[in-house]
Amino acid sequence: MAAPRPERLGILGGTFDPVHIAHIVSASECKAVLGLDRVDLVVAGDPWQKRGDVLLPAETRLELVELAVDGVEGVAASGIEVERSGPTYTVDTLEALAAVGRELFLILGADLPAALGSWHRVERIRELATLVVVTRAGDRHAVPPGEGWRVEHVDIPRLDVSSTDIRARLAAGRPIDGIVPAAVVRRIAALDLYTPR
Ligand code: ATP
Fold first, then answer.
1. What is the CATH number of the domain that holds 39?
2. Most exposed of 52, 70, 142, 187 (fewest Cβ within 10 Å)?
3. Cα 3 to middle of ligand 1, angstroms
4. Backbone φ, ψ for residue 54 (5° rounding)
5. Containing structural domain, residue 138
6. Using CA atoms, how far apart are residues 88 and 105, in angstroms rounded to an integer?
7. In a domain, 108, yes or no
């Protein structure tokens, strides 16, 4: 009997403060192009490299991601890093998700590979996952520092949106329709999030 095909799990980590359409497009395009079984949007509980800049509590960021992925085939929200205490290290998430018969794909926007050198236990990340670099401003040349990485590149339509821009729009009373999924727009309005107090 042929050996069962390994499960292929994509992991798109982020602060998601808040989630936006480029996150969803990246996840579903990587799933399709690389034949992944599922992509998890993993919400950072305590994103230590952004400490002081994160506006919403982790539970609220996770709730918005859950609304955003509702109905998106093969894309799920994950609270694994929210449930864990202490600073959020991607390597801990990969170790928790690694399993016999499962291949891990760590999905990153093209702005991030250059910064990987500052990540916690980066050599272990290299062992545990294939890096998937998603084109964010058309740059297909973003590569991680050092040798020995398994890397895939996936192009998505160029979407010049960011959580930073969304926070600025909301603070200024401008609309975010179309930049985040409608259910997320409604929840942000209902909870009156990101507006100046
Ligand atoms: P911020 O503006 O607060 O820095 P962000 O919009 O970059 O936030 P994150 O939650 O930090 O959002 O990003 C999670 C992941 O999504 C990262 O790998 C990031 O590179 C990627 N990403 C974010 N925006 C885009 C985009 N417009 N196109 C492609 N990838 C993106």
1. 3.40.50.620
2. 52
3. 37
4. -85, 125
5. 7-159
6. 18
7. yes
Characterise 137 by phi-psi region: left (phi > 0), alpha (psi -120 to 50), beta (else). left
Residue 158, pLDDT > 70, answer yes
DSSP-derived 3-state class of residue 122: helix
What are 23-67's pLDDT values in tens digits? Answer: 999 999 999 999 999 999 999 998 887 777 888 999 999 999 999
Structure tokens at 5: 């095909």
Q: What letters, b where the CB count within 10 A reaches 16 and e where it falls short, cover 55-89?
A: ebebebbbbbbbbbbeebeebebbbbbbeeeeebb
Taken in order 26, 28, 33, 34, is the CA torsion positive or negative? positive
Question: Can you spell out the DSSP letters for 43-57?
Answer: E-SS-GGGTTT--S-
* pLDDT higher than threshold 60 for residue 82: yes
Structural domain includes residue 128: yes
The answer as to whether 135 is a domain residue is yes
53 CA closest ligand 1 atom index:
3
Report the separation in Å between the CA atom of 135 and the middle of ligand 1, taken as the mean of its atom positions.
11
Does residue 78 belong to any structural domain of this protein? Answer: yes
Instruction: Please give the model's pTM, rounded to 2 decimal places.
Output: 0.94
